[in-house]
Structure formats: structure tokens, C-alpha cells
């Protein structure tokens, strides 16, 4: 096998000897383990592991053989798993509406090589941000939508994403509701960002209401989109101090900066295979050094 | 007038020349202005000011004369105001139930002279924390309560507080509902602390639910108690990062540390006359240097 | 006078009645005071004020008359002052070398109207970042430099800046030493950003040394450039948690994000006239709501 | 073997198969692995592991046999290791001088069962804090010191600590220099706390100098004491925002709160066996859920 870093994301019932079994498997097949991160949910008796191994010429297995053999182990231990061979960049689509802060930031990081992925397209229900996509040389698709045309537009989106083999959809302030069908088509493959408050303010004009209430902190949450739109597994959160002096406008501006940082981190965690989702919870393993 | 620092908290409709009028008033009467902090709510056209002035022997007014003259100004400008002459410590009652982290911290700061107030008593619906109050030499009152006896117990509380001229009631994890009548008896004089999450988790076992949801931040909010118990004006908030590794127990422990710091700050802001409440919003002026 | 917001930045010896005098002056001349922020350095007995007033048609003074009358007051109270009439955007030059994160961020904010200034040029000692400036339609000047040519290059810089009436120079990771003469030519008009650590690491490769030392926090500081290069008045600072897992490369990447946010805030404070410098200390007044 | 949680802290040269070897060893001997945390320093090719295993009645080994067998593995892989059997609380001595915030906090946490250790004594070079130790029922030792008597006093300290089998010495604002001999007697067993600034201020009156410089952040660092007193391996750091309004006194008060939280965390990490020290770097593994 050619030298490459391979990442396994593993989940199964917690059971005696599971770490030894798993690490021994890779050792026996000639891989060197770069890092092994685990998490055990004691309440649910569930085991989670992120295993990074490196192959070299001493590994005689092909990818297919590796996966076949690992699948045998997986069956014995009721393991659900995914594998990533590292060399291939994930294909990403970014969806936007009117606001540009997240889009600029993601395209800048992408261009500078700080996000290990391939941004294939920017899709929007408005023309407004086309110049930004073009500035960075990324194809821009304009797919307007109304509540009447939602199903048809989503069909177009699915056609567009699937024909381009999109691995991850980043909703960088795409201000449209997605149907359950659409979300279900991309389980744990849609990352959304939205503002967060303590206490939460549901509904319209949250920054105005946060201002009226005199909150001292505002924040943002990045999560996977699920049927219950703002309720999916939380990937990352951020927060900043504010004061009574902050106006709704300045709160919104501070909120935009938090959203920018939080979404960039969440996308980075996803494309670096640092996340395992279980039910409504995202286990986010810290980056390891290699 | 003897040398003393006097703090005026002022609110009125915003109007042309109001800062000049107010500062000129004190200048004319011979006071030196130490600091003048304002806030204008543009939407509501309301003006707020915290004015710290110092008197010396050149001030010939008595307190009564000062207040009488200021009241004339107040009438002309529709000003609502309070004044504090600085030398007198506010009298504080601390209410607790089972948990001790806030109580220890407040009594320690009080004892070390870091909170400029006089803690007159600790009141609880349980005997459990009596030893802590006694350790610090503070009278402890045990007033048990059930839903049946709530009205009677609150009558006892009011009798106890009012006969001791209590200025501020700090609910340092007092885990009982207060009636609307009780809360209305002490407008903006009861400070409560509770945990805060993004998103919010209503109801029982919030730390367990935060754990299940995999939140990345937990926090705490100190606010004035109003009829709608957890919805009063927010005085201070704090937050800490957590990970999926955190158990409900460790979340609770981290939450306790945040509550400790946030409540101490809120109490300090109150007794330093840094807060003006308007509607459901607490305007908290930063501490000034003098 | 046409309706406009006028900002006075004022410093003088602290003295009795100064706030009343100053606010009364503007009241008498027919201005409405939007906000009045003060700071008193007790140790040094110095008074600082940021005063925002608004004119309307009832103000009969011209700018020249206003300044002439204010100067009379200033002389009486030993006041040093500056005034900004709000309508005119400050002209900004950005200096860079190799790294692009601050440049992208500033040009993005500028383009989106979030920084109230006019970025007139990007200047670099390398060609590398020219495409970014051009992407945003900002003139790019390439002025290479060696230690031998430093004086000549700085003369070119001064010629370039002064002929373009540059008000503020932002060193957005310009990795060259500036001579004392150059820095003195632009007192409190050059903002620099650099990484900060606890403890500090002087010299080369700070991220490698922070890694070797196992720091748990890294940060960044924006400050005005003075003769003693990394020692000027601090405008803003930021910090993030890191762990032993962080590599020198990931520390650098986290550091870049902090630098981005901190420099953007510092530039914003400067162009909003929120800063008064006294000696080696920057007094940064919070943004006010109007 | 009786049911117990056993923690191994391991370091060795990084080598192929090391995780598999180590986990397999415990699996073979009948232990269940609760968690396995690793860190690889790529530059130095060093491997670090914190392994938590649980024994039950199926484990036939005695402690001695376990350690003997593990030592054989250790020799083969050049492993340095320590083991902790969990049931036994570490014995802790707290050293103080004048300031009480850390002492109160640690004794409170200890009393409430939040620190899994046994505080055996408080030692001070002043009588001032004796009442606090006595309030919590902890023996207090008064050992005054001058530069002349330092060697003799340290000899007394060593006698006191060693005869009481002290495992950890917490310098909770003990304001005396320790000699190199004393520090070397307790390698990685003395935790110190001190204020931290960006930039750093060496020497006397750091809060006054931070005030004069107008810093926007202040912090604290907990570290192991080494010969170079303020330069040992960093365990934990914290930081808070401040403004120009902060006086030296209020900076000091904010600093005290940060020190309180940071030292409590550092002590907790140490007694929970979360730390491996390598050279001048502390690898602090996050708490795991079990």
C-alpha cells in the first residue's frame, strides 16, 4: 500500500478489550498507529474511536482487502465505521443568501490552503454574492426559491450536488427553510450556522430582542442540519461579551464575527474527520499533531 | 457637608442639554464631579446617568437641601432618581438551600472586605448550610417551606428582612419558587443566579440534557427576580468551554464555578450602585477608578 | 451648521467643574450632546473626555468659529484636543509582507462598508499579495527593502503616504523594522499587530517556543508603533486556549485568527475616534450607540 | 484483584505498534481499558500515554505481579511509568503568606469533596491566615523565614512534609523564594501560581505597571516549580478582559479571581493523574468520563 494516512471513525457497544482488539488489528496488518482517540458514553454504554494509522510499503493489503478484513472485525463487535484515505479532498458546496462574512472567510481560507477541501461551487437564492464567488474563481449557481417552488428548487440542488459528488454542504447564512426530504438526503453532511443567545430568543429580530433584554453575552452555534432545523448535533460554539451600549446593529456585527470563526472551525473539524455523530450529539475529537 | 462620595442614578426622557444641565447643577452647588456615565437608548429616547460627585467643606448644603433642590430639577426634566451617600453599607440577606459554592464565596469576599456591604443573615429552607454561616459568624435562620406553607414562610421572610432593614436579597441557589407578591415587595432588590445554556434547556436536569445534546459551552446568568422568575433584567453572564468528555457531573461542577464568579460580580455591581434598571433591561455601568 | 455628528477628544489636568464647563460650552452654542465619556487618571490627576455632539440648523457657528471659541476654553483649562466632523472618511494605507489573513479581512470589511474609512493603497516589500489587493480593486505598491536601502525606501513611503494624505497606516503583518525617524513622522498613526504569549517569548520562532513550553493560551496585541517597536500603547488584545496537542503550525494558524480579529477591532476603534493616547497608554472608550 | 480503577502514566520513544502492545498487555491480563489517551511529540519522537484500566475478580494478579510484569514490558520499550491505584488520596500541603483567596477556595473545595485529596496542613511564614485553616479544621504550621534562616526553615519544611508523607505541595501565594535544593527535593510535586501579563512585566508592582501600560487582558499561570522559579512546566492558564478604567487595585482583585480558578484546576489535574511532565512541558490530558 502506498504511504498514506488513513482515518477510521468507529462506533460500537462498549465491550471489554475493544481498544486492544482494534489497535491489535492494525498492528498485525503492518500499520503504524499515529493516534487513537476514544470516548465512552457511560450512560449508553457506547464506544467511539478515531484511529489514524499510516501505511508504508510493508503493508501488503490493498484498500479493498483492508476494508474486507476490517468489516469482519466490525461484524464481530457490532461496529459501525467509515474510513478516509486522506489523499482525496472532500468536495464542498457553500450555500448563501445575502450576507457575505462567512463566504469571504471560507473562500479565503480555501484559497490559502488552510481548509483541506475542494470548494466546487457557491449556490444562492440571490444574485447578490455572485461577485465574491467570481473574485475567488469559484462557480456560482443562482437558484431562486419561493415557498411554492421549494420542492422544485431542492430537486435542482440535489441534482447539482449529486452530479458533482458533493461531500459536504455548508449553509453559510442560507436563509431558507430546507424540507425534511432534502435534509434526510444528506445526513450529517449539511453544516448550518446560526446565532445563539442566553437566554434563547426564538423567532424574528433576535438581535433586537437581545438588545431590549440587555444580554451581556451573544454567541453562535454551528451544527449539522436535521429535520428539526436549529436542533441538530452541535459541532462548535462561540461567544463574546457585549454591554448595554451595544445597539442591535453592533450586536449583529459582533455576531457576524463569531459566526465567521465558529463556522470555519466546524467545517475544518468535519473535513479533518474529527467528528462522530451519535443520535443528536456530535463527538468532536481534538486535532492531533501529525 | 462632610467630605463624601455621593452617587446619583438618574433616568429621564432624552432631551437637549440634559448633560449640561445636570453637571452644571452640581458644579453650581460646589460639588466636584468624579465621573459622569451616560447611556442613551435611542429607540426609546430615554436618558440614563450615573453621576459620582464629591463634597467638601465648601459645600454649604445639607443632605435634605441637596435633595430638595435636585428634586426641583428632577420635576422640570421628568427625572426619576436615587442617591447614595457612600458611607453606609447596604444590608444584605443571603438565601440558600443545599449547595454551598456561592455562599462560601460571598461570605469569604465579605469577610475579606472585598464586598462593600454588611451581610446580616443567611436564610435557608434547610439546616444543611448552617455550619458555613456559623463558620463565618453570620446569623443563620432556618425557615422550612412546602407549597402549602409558602405564603406563611414568605410572610416570615418579609418580617425578618424588613425588621432588619435588608437592602438586598441574594438568592445564592435558593431552590424555591417565590410568589409574585413576595417578588413585588422587593423590586430590583432580589438577585438570582441560574445556569444558562445555548440553546436553553427548560425544566429538570438541564446538565443531563446539555450532556446529551453535546453542548460546547455552558454558562450562568445573574438577574433581578421578577414575577416571571428566570426572566428578569440580566445583570451579568459568564460562560466556559466544555467538550463531549464532560459528564453531567463535571458540567455541573464547571457550572458551579461560573455561577460563583457571575453572582459575585452581580452583587458587587449592585452594591456599588452601578446598575439602573429600565423595564426588563439592566444598564450596568463599568466601575470607575475613584 | 449642517447637521452632523462632531467628536471631540480632549485631555487636560483634572480640575473642579471641568465636565460642567465643557458640556455647558456646547449647550450654550446650541449643540446637543449625544454622549460624553470621561476617564480620570487619579494618580496623574489627568482628565480625558470623548464628547459627541450633533449640530442642527439652530447652530449659527461655522466650523472655524466653533474651533476658535473652543480654543479659548482650551487655553483656560490647559486642554489638548482634536475634533472630527464625521462626514470625512479617514484615508488608510495597509502595509503587508507575506501573510494574507489580516489583509483579506480588512479589505473585506472595507468593501462591505463595515470599516468607515477609505483604503487608499496596499504597500508591500514583496509582490506576493498584489493579487489580493487587485481582487478588491485597491492600488498596490511594491517597495522592496533591504537593511541598506531602508532609509531610501522609507523616504519613498513617506512621499507616497503624504502625497495621498494618509491618516492611518496599518501594519498588517509588515515584517520589517521601521526606523525611529519614520515612526516619529506618524505619531499614534501607525497601528501594528503581533502575537503575544504568556509568558512572552522574545526573538525568533515564538510559536515553536510556545509549543516547546506547552503554553495553554496564545494571543495577539494591536498597538501604536513607537520607537520601541513592540512596546507602544496597547489598543486591543485577544487570546485563545490551546493544548499540548497543538503543533507549532496549528498554534500559528490559531494565532492568525486572533490577529485578524484584534487588528480589525483596533482599526475600527481608531477610525471611530474612540482612542486617546496619553504617554504609553491608549484609553479606548467603548463604542456608543448613536 | 479487588475492583479498582488503575491509572498508568507512560512515556517512551515513539515506536511502531506501541499502542497495540500496551493495550494488549492489559487485555491479556484481564483488565478492561476505560480510556487510553495518547500524545506523540513528532519533533522529539516521544510517545505519552495515560491509560485507565479497571480490575475485577477475574484478574488474578496481585499489584506486585502486575507491576513486575509491566516492568518487563517497560524495559523492552524503554518506558518510564508511574501507577496509581485510585483508592488512596494524595496528601497535600498548602503553603501561604498573606493573601487568602486561593486558600479559602482550595479548603472549600476540599471540604465539599470536590478535590479528591487529603489536605494535611497549611504552612505559612506568617500567622495571619491561621484562623482560616482552623475554621476548616486543618492543622496550621507557622514557620517564619528570613534570607538568613532560609536553609534552616526549608530543612524544617522538608522534615515536616516528609514525615507526613506529603505527595503534593501547593504554593497558594507563598511569597518566598525557594532554594534550588528544596525544589529539587520535590520534582514536579510543587505547584505554584502567579499572575501573567501580555506583555510580561518582570519585577515589582506588576499590576501598577500593567495599569500604566493600559493592558486589555490580565491572567494567571499555574506551573510546577523548578530551579528557575517562574519558568517551570505550565499546567493551566486563565485570562480576563480589563479596560483603562481598571485601577491597580481592581486589576489585582480581578487577578486574584483568575488565580483562584487557575490554581484549583491545576491542583485537580495533578491529583487526578492527568499530567505527564517531559522536560519543561506539561502534557495535561483532559478529564475522561468514567
A few lines on this structure:
With 290 residues, chain A is an alpha/beta fold.
Describe the protein:
Chain A is an alpha/beta fold. Chain A has two domains: about 5-85, ACT domain (Alpha-Beta Plaits, 2-Layer Sandwich), CATH 3.30.70.260; about 90-285, 3-Layer(aba) Sandwich (Rossmann fold). Helix content of chain A is about 35%, strand content about 30%. The first copy, chain A, contains eight helices and 13 strands. Chain A is globular. The mean pLDDT of chain A is about 90. Chains in contact: A-B, A-C, A-D, B-C, B-D, C-D.
Layout of SSEs?
4 copies of one chain form a homotetramer.
Chain A: E1 4-13, H1 18-28, E2 32-41, E3 46-55, H2 63-77, E4 80-84, E5 90-96, H3 101-111, E6 117-124, H4 130-135, E7 140-142, H5 150-163, E8 168-171, H6 180-185, E9 190-197, H7 206-213, E10 217-224, E11 234-241, H8 248-271, E12 275-278, E13 281-284
Parallel strand pairs in A: 5-6, 5-8, 6-7, 8-9
Antiparallel strand pairs in A: 1-3, 1-4, 2-3, 9-10, 10-11, 12-13
Helix pairs in contact in A: 3-8, 7-8
- Percent of sequence in beta strands of chain A: 25-35%
CATH architecture of the largest domain in chain A: 3-Layer(aba) Sandwich
Looking at the structure, the CATH topology of the largest domain in chain A is Rossmann fold
Biggest interface, which chains? A-B, 34 and 34 residues
Q: Identify the CATH homologous superfamily of the largest domain in chain A.
A: Formyl transferase, N-terminal domain
Radius of gyration of chain A: 21 Å
Q: What is the count of β-strands of chain A?
A: 13
Q: In angstroms, what separates the terminal alpha carbons of chain A?
A: 19 Å
H/E order of the elements of chain A? EHEEHEEHEHEHEHEHEEHEE
